[in-house]
Amino acid sequence: MFRFHAFSTSSLHGFCPRSARTGRWGRNALWFTCLLTISFLITGCEGIQSALNPAGRDAALIAQLYWWMVGGAVIIWLIVVGLAVYALQINATEHDYNVTRFWVIGGGAVAPTIILTVLLVYGLSMMPTLLEPAPEGSQTITVIGKQWWWKVRYHLPEGQAVELANEIRLPVDEPVQFYLESADVIHSFWIPSLGGKVDMLPGRQTRLTLHPQRTGIYRGVCAEYCGGSHAKMSFEVVVMERDAFDTWLEQQQAPAKSASNELAERGESVFLAHGCGACHTIRGTKANGKIAPDLTHYGSRLRLAASALPQTRDALKEWIAHPKQTKPGVHMPSFALLSEDDLTALAAYLEGLQ
Amino acid sequence: MKQRLITLGVFLAVVGLGGILVVVLGLAPVQASSGHWPITKWFLEFSMSRSIATYSTGIKVPELDRPELVLKGAGHYETGCSPCHGSPTLRHPRVAANMLPQPPYLPEEVHHWDPAELFLITKHGIMLAGMPAFPSLKRDDEVWALVAFLQEYQEMEKEDYQKLVFGNTWNASQEGDALQEKLSDGTPLVVIQACIRCHGLQGEGRGQGAFPKLAGQNAEYLSRSLEAYINGDRHSGIMEPIAARLDVATIKMISDYYAGLELHTEESNDKQKALLESIERGKVIATEGLPNEEIPSCADCHGPGEVDISPKYPRLAGQYREYLVLQLELFHDRNRGGAEAAELMHEVADQLTESHREDVAAYYASLKRDDEGASSSGE
User: Fold this and answer.
1) Given an 8 Å threshold on Cβ–Cβ distance, is A279 in contact with B306?
2) Does A331 sit within 8 Å of B341, measured CB to CB?
3) Residues B161 and B51 in one domain
4) What is the pLDDT of residues A17-67, one digit of tens each?
5) CA pair distance A311, B177, nearest whole angstrom
6) For the domain A140-253, what is the CATH code?
7) Does the residue B265 lie in any domain?
């Protein structure tokens, strides 16, 4: 993530021309400020959601294109500014007609055409690689965008599928095929650390292939404005070693474990008695709703409410009792009618669904 | 010219000051007993009828020739209107008789107004005339029920009125009738006084879906609903004034009483046959939901099923179809309100279309209370 506050404090001083003319101390201060600004910017590029710190083949290609563009843009900028400064210095005498024409046509039409053509060819040449479907036998995942969460369906080798929500785990160094759909409005699926973004369109299926290359936890986001809580529609992406991934996927296929203690047992009956199962599924119980996120292994997820909240008991209780405070307009109704004890029991039960 | 203007100005100032003086000295009479001068009376009545004619323009009148509307309207008329306007059983209410203006005896007056005007008067009241606005401004359906009743009211005999308002409790004084039995079998007095006239002797409603069945309903749902009427969280011009008179202990007594009654449901077979397809569609919605249309199942909160459901949610099996349709419409338009659990219904009601509402209501109306426990009702 870029930290814009870094610009606001140091960079203004850094580009102030007066400070460059105030002798040695001034020059040192300028360099110091520049270094500070650059270091702020570079640290800002790290983190779980940065397209400039790629952890996958596709993101790396896109980052490469980006750096070529930035490099080219800096050179062009220096030439243009250099020419402008030069133009201020020269004497305003009559110009040679041919020289003038050379600069206007060459600099204004020919050069941009050549540069942009090169850039376009270079950019387009990446498309076949980026769009290439994953080979047969790769892990296939369907992701369906809904206001404001993600329905995730892992396709298994035997033609079956297991339905999860709001978290995606991937094996490292293997291509993964995504099929993207939308249940309501246009969303866009983007894991900046792993690759480019692809729109999710109602009534259509789009494709995306990703090649994660580094294990770790990353964040995916919705990159197309999709309603009031668009900004609260994210998901965690965990890239794991193949063995760990297999173990995880097997565990996700299993039905929910039954409640392990008295509190969780009470939580389970609170869940069923208050009709949570009308919208949510917990495989292995009577809860079989198809409208809201599957909660069978809710406790194994890293974050809550499509990554809008941390995975803590207090956050979960707050979410159940007042979901619209976190996500305005969310379809989950408020369960403020539950007593404090019922809420605690319910949260304990859900946490236990590992 | 200038001289004339000055004279006029002085004259107006004297008149204005004189008027203020009359008010400040308290010379203007506000006693109801003093009556109006004929010209004042004419002027006030003329203003009123002009205002009502103007403001009632554009009000769309629904179908009023429906027995359940008349029945519901009659129930509220007895509670809310007859203390001032009288009724065939109370021709001359004495307290209201000396109001100014005197509330008219409606069978003789109602023909002056068309239904839209009656709606306006009933819903919004009449300023300075002692006619209050309807207790809940969210329940136009209840106001229309009163208007529907008033359409029939003109030619109503005393006996018909009593039958309409009191149902099978109307001949209370006769020996050996059902009410006498109720009085001796331990039924709380408040239930006899406040509830049974509309909700039936056995909490079975009054037919036609005008008033909900209460027998066998969850006690917690009933008491929370009554509290919601008192707090203004559930909207009803009919129930709010009745609930307002109840205290916590009485609410508990009433709720426990109705929860303890058994609901005997028999919907006529003819009616069920006509609705068979609707009931089947409703069963799918109620038990499985329509996930593609974002409609959750009803059964997870209202049964049937094997799970013990929260007593804060109402039981619906055997409830009147008309009543259920109305509640879903009210939820959809945010006009019902309710206790805390009502919030849950808003998300659902937003997804239901008119035909969905009718289908699920037909399904629940067709269920027997005994079906509730079984996950697959024996159909």
Assistant:
1) no
2) no
3) yes
4) 444 444 566 667 777 776 666 665 665 567 888 899 999 999 999 999 999
5) 64
6) 2.60.40.420
7) no
